[in-house]
Structure of Histidine triad (HIT) family protein:
Amino acid sequence: FRRIYLENCVFCLIAEKKLDSQIIYEDDISLAFKDINPVAPFHVLVIPKKHIRSLGDVEDFNLVSHLLYVCNLVAQKEGLTKGYRVVTNVGDDGGQTVFHLHFHVIGGRPMDWPPG
Ligand code: 5GP
Ligand code: ZN
């Protein structure tokens, strides 16, 4: 089948293996790889392989359910037994900079709350 793919989208390029990343989990519909600019000792991004702009554009919430399953999977696999945080930024006010849906999985240190 033909995947929806945007040539100017950095995460589409990573999903297509046209851009290098440190992949730590992959299946047919999702990918988890290390963030290039980590904010904590552990910082992984979980994305759908299919291009979706943000959570605000999701139609298939079964896919989101799968992505959250993968977030927990990678956190457990990496031994984040003291906890971790999952974040998705939506749009400009949300602080989104890459407009391909992704969940940040952040851990390895205590987190502050609320965020800035
Ligand atoms: P956002 O601000 O959209 O929620 O998060 C985008 C994240 O993608 C940032 O944490 C940023 O460091 C990461 N990022 C941007 N470009 C690349 C890249 O080319 N490779 C990887 N691995 N991460 C990237
Ligand atoms: Zn994309």
Q: What stands out?
A: Strands lie at 23-26, 30-34, 42-48, 84-87, 103-107. Residues 6, 9, 11-12, 51, 100 surround zinc ion (ligand 2) (CB under 6 Å).
